[in-house]
Design a protein that fits this description.
It is built from 13 helices and 19 strands. With 458 residues, it is α/β, with parallel strands linked by helices. Strands 1, 2, 3, 4, 5, 16, 17, 18 and 19 form a 9-stranded mixed β-sheet that branches. It is globular. Bound molecules: N-(aminocarbonyl)-beta-alanine and zinc ion (2 copies).
Length: 458
Protein backbone atom coordinates (compact mmCIF):
# COMPACT_ATOMS: atom_id res chain seq x y z
CA UNK A 1 0.00 0.00 0.00
CA UNK A 2 1.52 3.33 -1.01
CA UNK A 3 0.27 6.88 -1.25
CA UNK A 4 1.75 9.88 -3.03
CA UNK A 5 0.57 13.42 -2.32
CA UNK A 6 1.82 15.89 -4.93
CA UNK A 7 2.28 19.65 -4.58
CA UNK A 8 1.42 19.75 -0.90
CA UNK A 9 1.67 23.02 0.99
CA UNK A 10 2.78 21.39 4.21
CA UNK A 11 1.88 23.32 7.33
CA UNK A 12 3.13 22.34 10.80
CA UNK A 13 3.90 24.58 13.81
CA UNK A 14 7.56 24.89 12.75
CA UNK A 15 7.45 24.73 8.96
CA UNK A 16 5.49 25.80 5.91
CA UNK A 17 6.75 24.72 2.50
CA UNK A 18 5.73 22.99 -0.72
CA UNK A 19 6.76 19.37 -1.30
CA UNK A 20 5.56 15.90 -2.30
CA UNK A 21 4.86 13.33 0.41
CA UNK A 22 5.32 9.60 -0.15
CA UNK A 23 3.86 7.10 2.30
CA UNK A 24 4.71 3.42 2.28
CA UNK A 25 2.25 1.27 4.18
CA UNK A 26 1.37 3.25 7.32
CA UNK A 27 4.30 5.65 7.48
CA UNK A 28 5.63 8.79 5.80
CA UNK A 29 8.84 7.62 4.10
CA UNK A 30 9.84 10.55 1.87
CA UNK A 31 9.22 14.30 1.77
CA UNK A 32 10.91 15.96 -1.21
CA UNK A 33 10.24 18.81 -3.61
CA UNK A 34 9.59 16.43 -6.52
CA UNK A 35 8.94 12.73 -6.15
CA UNK A 36 8.40 11.41 -9.66
CA UNK A 37 10.18 8.08 -9.77
CA UNK A 38 7.69 6.01 -7.76
CA UNK A 39 4.56 4.05 -8.55
CA UNK A 40 1.91 4.74 -5.90
CA UNK A 41 -1.33 2.86 -5.32
CA UNK A 42 -3.07 6.16 -4.58
CA UNK A 43 -2.19 9.57 -5.99
CA UNK A 44 -3.59 12.81 -4.57
CA UNK A 45 -3.01 16.20 -6.14
CA UNK A 46 -2.91 18.77 -3.32
CA UNK A 47 -2.43 21.85 -5.54
CA UNK A 48 -4.17 24.84 -3.97
CA UNK A 49 -4.69 22.97 -0.71
CA UNK A 50 -2.92 22.78 2.63
CA UNK A 51 -1.62 19.53 4.06
CA UNK A 52 -1.84 19.38 7.84
CA UNK A 53 -0.89 16.61 10.26
CA UNK A 54 -4.01 14.69 11.31
CA UNK A 55 -5.88 16.67 13.95
CA UNK A 56 -6.06 15.38 17.50
CA UNK A 57 -8.99 15.90 19.83
CA UNK A 58 -7.62 15.45 23.36
CA UNK A 59 -10.98 15.50 25.15
CA UNK A 60 -13.97 13.50 24.02
CA UNK A 61 -16.58 11.17 25.48
CA UNK A 62 -18.09 8.29 23.50
CA UNK A 63 -19.02 5.53 25.93
CA UNK A 64 -20.29 7.71 28.76
CA UNK A 65 -22.67 6.51 31.46
CA UNK A 66 -23.64 9.88 32.95
CA UNK A 67 -26.54 11.51 34.78
CA UNK A 68 -28.75 8.43 34.47
CA UNK A 69 -28.24 7.85 30.76
CA UNK A 70 -25.57 7.13 28.11
CA UNK A 71 -24.08 9.43 25.49
CA UNK A 72 -25.46 8.61 22.05
CA UNK A 73 -22.45 7.99 19.81
CA UNK A 74 -20.75 4.64 19.33
CA UNK A 75 -17.09 4.31 18.43
CA UNK A 76 -18.24 3.78 14.85
CA UNK A 77 -20.41 6.89 14.57
CA UNK A 78 -17.95 9.04 16.52
CA UNK A 79 -14.85 7.99 14.58
CA UNK A 80 -16.70 8.42 11.29
CA UNK A 81 -17.65 11.97 12.27
CA UNK A 82 -14.15 12.70 13.56
CA UNK A 83 -12.53 11.62 10.29
CA UNK A 84 -14.90 13.52 8.03
CA UNK A 85 -13.99 16.59 10.09
CA UNK A 86 -10.23 15.98 9.93
CA UNK A 87 -9.62 14.47 13.37
CA UNK A 88 -7.53 11.31 13.00
CA UNK A 89 -6.81 10.62 16.67
CA UNK A 90 -8.93 11.16 19.73
CA UNK A 91 -8.43 10.78 23.44
CA UNK A 92 -11.50 9.52 25.26
CA UNK A 93 -12.11 9.78 28.99
CA UNK A 94 -12.57 6.51 30.83
CA UNK A 95 -15.17 7.44 33.47
CA UNK A 96 -15.69 4.51 35.87
CA UNK A 97 -18.37 4.49 38.53
CA UNK A 98 -16.90 4.78 42.02
CA UNK A 99 -17.48 1.09 42.72
CA UNK A 100 -15.93 -0.08 39.45
CA UNK A 101 -12.40 -1.52 39.45
CA UNK A 102 -10.04 0.68 37.34
CA UNK A 103 -8.67 -2.30 35.38
CA UNK A 104 -12.17 -3.51 34.55
CA UNK A 105 -13.11 -0.01 33.39
CA UNK A 106 -9.96 0.23 31.25
CA UNK A 107 -10.78 -3.10 29.63
CA UNK A 108 -14.41 -2.15 29.13
CA UNK A 109 -13.57 1.11 27.34
CA UNK A 110 -10.76 -0.49 25.33
CA UNK A 111 -13.09 -3.31 24.28
CA UNK A 112 -15.69 -0.83 23.06
CA UNK A 113 -13.20 1.07 20.90
CA UNK A 114 -11.14 -1.83 19.56
CA UNK A 115 -12.70 -3.41 16.50
CA UNK A 116 -15.01 -0.42 16.02
CA UNK A 117 -13.09 2.82 15.79
CA UNK A 118 -12.00 3.88 12.32
CA UNK A 119 -9.43 6.31 13.70
CA UNK A 120 -6.64 5.84 16.21
CA UNK A 121 -7.45 6.36 19.86
CA UNK A 122 -6.20 6.38 23.40
CA UNK A 123 -7.69 7.22 26.80
CA UNK A 124 -7.25 9.39 29.86
CA UNK A 125 -7.79 7.10 32.86
CA UNK A 126 -10.53 8.50 35.09
CA UNK A 127 -9.67 8.51 38.78
CA UNK A 128 -13.10 8.54 40.38
CA UNK A 129 -12.02 6.77 43.61
CA UNK A 130 -8.68 6.40 45.37
CA UNK A 131 -7.75 3.57 47.73
CA UNK A 132 -4.93 0.99 47.75
CA UNK A 133 -6.75 -1.33 45.35
CA UNK A 134 -7.49 1.50 42.92
CA UNK A 135 -3.88 2.72 43.22
CA UNK A 136 -2.58 -0.69 42.17
CA UNK A 137 -5.00 -0.62 39.24
CA UNK A 138 -3.82 2.83 38.08
CA UNK A 139 -0.18 1.74 38.30
CA UNK A 140 -0.93 -1.33 36.17
CA UNK A 141 -2.89 0.76 33.64
CA UNK A 142 0.09 3.09 33.18
CA UNK A 143 2.22 0.01 32.42
CA UNK A 144 -0.40 -0.97 29.84
CA UNK A 145 0.07 2.25 27.91
CA UNK A 146 -1.97 5.10 29.40
CA UNK A 147 0.04 8.10 30.60
CA UNK A 148 -2.66 10.56 31.64
CA UNK A 149 -5.32 10.61 34.35
CA UNK A 150 -8.64 12.45 34.44
CA UNK A 151 -10.18 13.84 37.61
CA UNK A 152 -13.40 15.70 38.31
CA UNK A 153 -13.52 18.37 40.99
CA UNK A 154 -17.24 18.67 40.12
CA UNK A 155 -20.06 16.08 40.02
CA UNK A 156 -20.14 15.35 43.74
CA UNK A 157 -21.60 11.91 44.46
CA UNK A 158 -20.80 10.69 40.93
CA UNK A 159 -17.34 11.07 39.33
CA UNK A 160 -16.13 13.73 41.81
CA UNK A 161 -13.28 13.01 44.23
CA UNK A 162 -12.48 14.33 47.71
CA UNK A 163 -9.47 16.49 48.54
CA UNK A 164 -7.83 13.49 50.19
CA UNK A 165 -8.23 11.56 46.93
CA UNK A 166 -7.04 14.55 44.92
CA UNK A 167 -3.83 14.76 46.95
CA UNK A 168 -3.22 11.00 46.59
CA UNK A 169 -3.90 11.08 42.83
CA UNK A 170 -1.51 13.94 42.19
CA UNK A 171 1.16 12.34 44.38
CA UNK A 172 0.89 9.07 42.42
CA UNK A 173 0.87 10.94 39.10
CA UNK A 174 4.07 12.77 40.01
CA UNK A 175 5.73 9.47 40.96
CA UNK A 176 4.63 7.76 37.71
CA UNK A 177 5.27 10.74 35.39
CA UNK A 178 1.61 10.94 34.43
CA UNK A 179 -0.14 14.22 33.54
CA UNK A 180 -3.47 14.81 35.30
CA UNK A 181 -6.31 16.35 33.31
CA UNK A 182 -8.89 18.03 35.51
CA UNK A 183 -12.47 19.28 35.35
CA UNK A 184 -12.32 22.30 37.65
CA UNK A 185 -15.49 23.49 39.37
CA UNK A 186 -16.12 23.65 43.12
CA UNK A 187 -18.57 20.79 43.64
CA UNK A 188 -20.00 22.05 46.95
CA UNK A 189 -20.68 25.52 45.59
CA UNK A 190 -22.49 23.96 42.62
CA UNK A 191 -24.66 21.87 44.93
CA UNK A 192 -25.52 24.82 47.19
CA UNK A 193 -26.41 27.06 44.25
CA UNK A 194 -28.48 24.31 42.60
CA UNK A 195 -30.46 23.86 45.86
CA UNK A 196 -30.99 27.61 46.18
CA UNK A 197 -32.37 28.06 42.66
CA UNK A 198 -34.60 24.99 42.78
CA UNK A 199 -36.02 26.11 46.15
CA UNK A 200 -36.90 29.47 44.53
CA UNK A 201 -38.76 27.66 41.72
CA UNK A 202 -36.02 28.55 39.21
CA UNK A 203 -35.97 25.28 37.31
CA UNK A 204 -35.30 26.15 33.64
CA UNK A 205 -32.05 25.46 31.73
CA UNK A 206 -30.95 29.10 32.05
CA UNK A 207 -30.34 28.51 35.78
CA UNK A 208 -27.64 25.96 34.95
CA UNK A 209 -25.42 28.96 34.20
CA UNK A 210 -26.23 30.73 37.48
CA UNK A 211 -25.55 27.57 39.47
CA UNK A 212 -22.03 27.36 37.97
CA UNK A 213 -20.89 30.98 37.52
CA UNK A 214 -17.29 31.89 36.56
CA UNK A 215 -16.17 32.14 40.19
CA UNK A 216 -17.16 28.50 40.77
CA UNK A 217 -14.88 27.45 37.92
CA UNK A 218 -12.10 29.83 38.99
CA UNK A 219 -12.22 28.40 42.53
CA UNK A 220 -11.83 24.91 41.06
CA UNK A 221 -8.76 26.00 39.11
CA UNK A 222 -7.29 27.77 42.14
CA UNK A 223 -7.87 24.62 44.19
CA UNK A 224 -6.08 22.48 41.61
CA UNK A 225 -3.18 24.96 41.42
CA UNK A 226 -2.70 24.70 45.20
CA UNK A 227 -2.62 20.90 45.16
CA UNK A 228 -0.43 20.74 42.04
CA UNK A 229 1.98 23.26 43.56
CA UNK A 230 2.31 21.17 46.73
CA UNK A 231 2.74 17.81 44.96
CA UNK A 232 4.70 18.93 41.89
CA UNK A 233 2.29 17.02 39.61
CA UNK A 234 1.83 18.21 36.03
CA UNK A 235 -1.77 19.23 35.37
CA UNK A 236 -3.95 20.07 32.38
CA UNK A 237 -7.14 22.04 32.90
CA UNK A 238 -9.86 20.81 30.57
CA UNK A 239 -12.64 22.94 29.08
CA UNK A 240 -11.60 26.36 30.38
CA UNK A 241 -14.49 28.68 29.63
CA UNK A 242 -13.85 32.12 31.11
CA UNK A 243 -11.39 34.85 32.03
CA UNK A 244 -11.59 34.20 35.77
CA UNK A 245 -10.56 30.54 35.41
CA UNK A 246 -7.83 31.38 32.91
CA UNK A 247 -6.40 34.01 35.29
CA UNK A 248 -6.15 31.45 38.09
CA UNK A 249 -4.29 29.06 35.79
CA UNK A 250 -1.90 31.82 34.68
CA UNK A 251 -1.28 32.77 38.32
CA UNK A 252 -0.45 29.11 39.00
CA UNK A 253 1.97 29.10 36.08
CA UNK A 254 3.64 32.27 37.35
CA UNK A 255 4.39 30.64 40.70
CA UNK A 256 5.87 27.57 39.02
CA UNK A 257 3.03 25.10 38.64
CA UNK A 258 3.41 22.90 35.56
CA UNK A 259 0.00 23.63 34.09
CA UNK A 260 -1.48 23.56 30.59
CA UNK A 261 -4.87 24.88 29.58
CA UNK A 262 -7.47 23.57 27.15
CA UNK A 263 -10.48 25.43 25.82
CA UNK A 264 -13.32 24.23 23.59
CA UNK A 265 -14.64 25.40 20.23
CA UNK A 266 -18.07 26.07 21.76
CA UNK A 267 -16.70 28.60 24.27
CA UNK A 268 -15.21 30.56 21.37
CA UNK A 269 -18.37 30.69 19.28
CA UNK A 270 -21.45 30.24 21.50
CA UNK A 271 -22.49 32.22 24.57
CA UNK A 272 -24.91 31.67 27.40
CA UNK A 273 -27.90 32.92 25.41
CA UNK A 274 -27.65 29.64 23.40
CA UNK A 275 -28.85 27.80 26.52
CA UNK A 276 -31.89 30.09 26.91
CA UNK A 277 -34.69 31.25 26.92
CA UNK A 278 -36.89 28.13 26.87
CA UNK A 279 -36.34 24.42 27.23
CA UNK A 280 -34.76 24.19 23.75
CA UNK A 281 -31.77 25.78 25.49
CA UNK A 282 -31.21 22.44 27.27
CA UNK A 283 -29.54 21.25 24.07
CA UNK A 284 -26.64 23.57 24.91
CA UNK A 285 -26.36 22.80 28.61
CA UNK A 286 -22.82 21.73 29.45
CA UNK A 287 -20.38 22.13 32.31
CA UNK A 288 -18.82 24.60 32.70
CA UNK A 289 -21.73 26.45 31.09
CA UNK A 290 -21.54 28.64 28.00
CA UNK A 291 -20.37 32.05 29.21
CA UNK A 292 -20.93 35.74 28.55
CA UNK A 293 -19.73 36.79 25.08
CA UNK A 294 -17.05 39.06 26.58
CA UNK A 295 -14.96 35.95 27.37
CA UNK A 296 -14.60 34.99 23.73
CA UNK A 297 -11.92 37.53 22.65
CA UNK A 298 -9.99 36.67 25.80
CA UNK A 299 -9.97 32.96 24.93
CA UNK A 300 -9.07 33.65 21.29
CA UNK A 301 -6.15 35.81 22.39
CA UNK A 302 -5.02 33.17 24.88
CA UNK A 303 -5.00 30.56 22.13
CA UNK A 304 -3.03 32.89 19.87
CA UNK A 305 -0.42 33.84 22.47
CA UNK A 306 0.10 30.34 23.90
CA UNK A 307 -1.60 30.83 27.29
CA UNK A 308 -4.08 28.20 26.11
CA UNK A 309 -2.30 25.15 24.69
CA UNK A 310 -5.07 23.15 23.01
CA UNK A 311 -8.48 23.43 21.42
CA UNK A 312 -10.72 20.40 22.04
CA UNK A 313 -14.43 19.56 21.91
CA UNK A 314 -15.48 17.67 25.08
CA UNK A 315 -17.82 15.92 22.64
CA UNK A 316 -20.60 14.47 24.85
CA UNK A 317 -23.74 13.93 22.77
CA UNK A 318 -27.17 13.55 24.38
CA UNK A 319 -30.25 13.84 22.18
CA UNK A 320 -33.24 16.07 22.87
CA UNK A 321 -35.27 13.19 24.35
CA UNK A 322 -32.47 12.64 26.87
CA UNK A 323 -32.25 16.37 27.56
CA UNK A 324 -35.99 16.26 28.52
CA UNK A 325 -34.96 14.34 31.65
CA UNK A 326 -34.27 17.81 33.02
CA UNK A 327 -37.64 19.35 32.23
CA UNK A 328 -38.73 21.04 35.46
CA UNK A 329 -35.28 20.54 37.05
CA UNK A 330 -32.20 21.89 35.25
CA UNK A 331 -29.88 19.79 37.47
CA UNK A 332 -31.11 16.67 35.68
CA UNK A 333 -30.35 17.83 32.12
CA UNK A 334 -27.55 15.53 30.84
CA UNK A 335 -24.55 17.84 30.38
CA UNK A 336 -22.77 18.02 27.04
CA UNK A 337 -23.02 18.77 23.32
CA UNK A 338 -21.85 17.15 20.06
CA UNK A 339 -18.92 18.92 18.37
CA UNK A 340 -16.37 16.28 17.35
CA UNK A 341 -17.04 16.63 13.63
CA UNK A 342 -17.07 20.41 13.45
CA UNK A 343 -14.16 21.57 15.62
CA UNK A 344 -11.51 21.87 12.90
CA UNK A 345 -13.70 23.53 10.25
CA UNK A 346 -15.17 26.02 12.73
CA UNK A 347 -11.73 26.81 14.12
CA UNK A 348 -10.30 27.30 10.63
CA UNK A 349 -13.23 29.48 9.57
CA UNK A 350 -13.56 31.65 12.67
CA UNK A 351 -9.92 31.56 13.74
CA UNK A 352 -7.69 31.44 10.66
CA UNK A 353 -9.96 32.99 8.02
CA UNK A 354 -11.00 35.80 10.34
CA UNK A 355 -7.36 36.55 11.20
CA UNK A 356 -7.53 35.68 14.90
CA UNK A 357 -5.23 32.66 14.70
CA UNK A 358 -2.16 32.31 12.54
CA UNK A 359 -2.23 29.16 10.36
CA UNK A 360 0.72 27.42 12.05
CA UNK A 361 -0.65 28.18 15.51
CA UNK A 362 -3.95 26.65 14.36
CA UNK A 363 -2.12 23.40 13.61
CA UNK A 364 -0.25 23.58 16.89
CA UNK A 365 -3.35 24.05 19.07
CA UNK A 366 -5.56 21.56 17.19
CA UNK A 367 -2.95 18.82 16.69
CA UNK A 368 0.71 19.10 17.67
CA UNK A 369 0.39 20.40 21.23
CA UNK A 370 -1.92 17.52 22.16
CA UNK A 371 0.53 15.05 20.63
CA UNK A 372 3.40 16.55 22.62
CA UNK A 373 1.56 16.80 25.94
CA UNK A 374 0.07 13.32 25.80
CA UNK A 375 3.04 11.29 24.57
CA UNK A 376 2.08 10.85 20.91
CA UNK A 377 4.69 13.10 19.23
CA UNK A 378 6.26 12.72 16.65
CA UNK A 379 4.27 9.62 15.70
CA UNK A 380 1.23 11.92 15.60
CA UNK A 381 0.94 15.70 15.25
CA UNK A 382 3.85 15.91 12.79
CA UNK A 383 4.64 15.61 9.09
CA UNK A 384 8.07 14.03 9.24
CA UNK A 385 9.72 10.98 7.75
CA UNK A 386 8.86 8.20 10.19
CA UNK A 387 5.59 9.76 11.42
CA UNK A 388 2.31 7.94 10.92
CA UNK A 389 0.77 8.90 7.58
CA UNK A 390 -2.19 10.69 9.19
CA UNK A 391 -2.69 13.62 6.83
CA UNK A 392 -5.40 16.15 6.14
CA UNK A 393 -5.43 17.62 2.64
CA UNK A 394 -7.46 20.71 3.40
CA UNK A 395 -9.47 22.75 0.91
CA UNK A 396 -9.59 26.40 2.07
CA UNK A 397 -11.97 27.31 -0.75
CA UNK A 398 -14.84 25.04 0.24
CA UNK A 399 -18.01 26.80 1.36
CA UNK A 400 -20.83 25.13 3.22
CA UNK A 401 -23.08 25.11 6.26
CA UNK A 402 -23.27 22.91 9.33
CA UNK A 403 -26.50 20.98 9.83
CA UNK A 404 -27.77 18.04 11.87
CA UNK A 405 -29.40 16.86 8.64
CA UNK A 406 -26.02 16.12 7.09
CA UNK A 407 -23.68 15.55 10.03
CA UNK A 408 -22.26 12.11 10.78
CA UNK A 409 -22.71 12.21 14.56
CA UNK A 410 -25.52 10.12 15.99
CA UNK A 411 -27.58 13.05 17.18
CA UNK A 412 -30.79 14.88 16.31
CA UNK A 413 -29.38 18.39 16.65
CA UNK A 414 -26.20 20.34 16.10
CA UNK A 415 -25.32 23.25 18.40
CA UNK A 416 -23.76 25.01 15.40
CA UNK A 417 -26.77 24.54 13.10
CA UNK A 418 -26.55 27.00 10.17
CA UNK A 419 -22.98 28.12 10.93
CA UNK A 420 -21.06 28.84 7.74
CA UNK A 421 -17.89 26.86 7.03
CA UNK A 422 -15.06 28.26 4.92
CA UNK A 423 -12.88 25.23 4.34
CA UNK A 424 -13.05 21.48 4.93
CA UNK A 425 -10.90 18.38 4.52
CA UNK A 426 -10.65 17.22 0.92
CA UNK A 427 -8.87 13.97 1.84
CA UNK A 428 -8.11 12.51 5.27
CA UNK A 429 -5.74 9.58 5.71
CA UNK A 430 -5.21 7.29 8.66
CA UNK A 431 -1.85 5.53 8.61
CA UNK A 432 -1.60 5.78 4.84
CA UNK A 433 -5.17 4.87 3.89
CA UNK A 434 -7.83 7.32 2.75
CA UNK A 435 -10.60 7.40 5.37
CA UNK A 436 -12.63 10.46 4.35
CA UNK A 437 -13.11 12.37 1.12
CA UNK A 438 -15.04 15.61 0.62
CA UNK A 439 -17.41 15.11 3.53
CA UNK A 440 -17.90 11.36 3.01
CA UNK A 441 -16.59 8.62 5.23
CA UNK A 442 -14.70 6.02 3.18
CA UNK A 443 -12.70 4.43 6.00
CA UNK A 444 -12.84 1.07 7.72
CA UNK A 445 -14.49 0.49 11.08
CA UNK A 446 -12.13 -1.38 13.36
CA UNK A 447 -8.95 -0.21 11.63
CA UNK A 448 -8.26 2.34 14.39
CA UNK A 449 -5.43 1.34 16.70
CA UNK A 450 -5.02 1.77 20.44
CA UNK A 451 -2.04 4.09 20.92
CA UNK A 452 0.22 3.08 23.81
CA UNK A 453 1.85 6.07 25.48
CA UNK A 454 4.84 6.42 27.80
CA UNK A 455 4.88 8.70 30.86
CA UNK A 456 6.96 11.85 30.40
CA UNK A 457 5.67 14.27 33.06
CA UNK A 458 8.14 13.66 35.90
O1 LIG B 1 -20.95 19.09 30.07
C1 LIG B 1 -20.01 18.35 29.92
N1 LIG B 1 -18.82 18.86 29.86
N2 LIG B 1 -20.23 17.01 29.80
C2 LIG B 1 -19.30 15.97 29.69
C3 LIG B 1 -18.66 15.60 30.99
C4 LIG B 1 -17.57 16.56 31.36
O2 LIG B 1 -17.72 17.29 32.33
O3 LIG B 1 -16.54 16.62 30.69
ZN1 LIG C 1 -15.79 18.02 32.41
ZN1 LIG D 1 -15.43 16.00 29.28
Amino acid sequence: MSLLIKNAEIVTPDERYVADIFCQNETITRIERNIDNVKADELIDASGKYVFPGFIDPHIHIYLPFMGTFAKDTHQTASRAALVGGTTTFIEMICPARNEKPIQAFELWLGKAQGNSACDFTFHMGVTRYDPEAEAGFTEIVKRGLSSFKIFLAYKGAFGITDEELYATLTLAKKLGVIVTAHCENADLVLELQKKFLSEGKTGPEFHYWSRPPLVEAEGVHHLMTFAGLTGAHVYIVHTSCEEALNEAMRGKQVGVNVWVETLIQYLLLDRTSAEPNFEGAKNVMSPPLREKKNQPILWKALADGSVATLATDHAPFDFTQKQMGKGDFTKIPNGIPSLQDRVNLYFTHGVKSGKIELQRFVDTASTQAAKLFGLFPRKGAIKVGSDADLVVYDPNYRGKISAKTHQMNLDYNSFEGFEIQGRPHVVTVRGKVAARDGEFVGEFGRGQFLRREPSHF
